[in-house]
Automatic annotation (TrEMBL):
Residues 3-27 form the HTH cro/C1-type domain. PROSITE patterns: HTH_CROC1. It comes from the Bacteria. This is XRE family transcriptional regulator. It comes from Chitinophaga silvatica. GO terms for molecular function: DNA binding.
Amino acid sequence: MTRNIIKPSIEIAKKIADELRVTVDYLIGGSTSMVLDKKLLKRIENIEALPEEEKEKIYYFIDLAITYNKTRKAYSR
């Protein structure tokens, strides 16, 4: 049994991924997480470069914002 499977070149796969704003790894099923926001990705990279104490402060405020928004959504129903 012959299957007619099209295999795009790396360049084409990269263009498709760029258009969809995901990684090539995501397209081929190697990753389950999508990176949609390049500004967010850059911020994450910058945070990773910080000393551990500074990262913990940032994580605290991120968690605070997430909890606040979840609570607000829960009570707005």
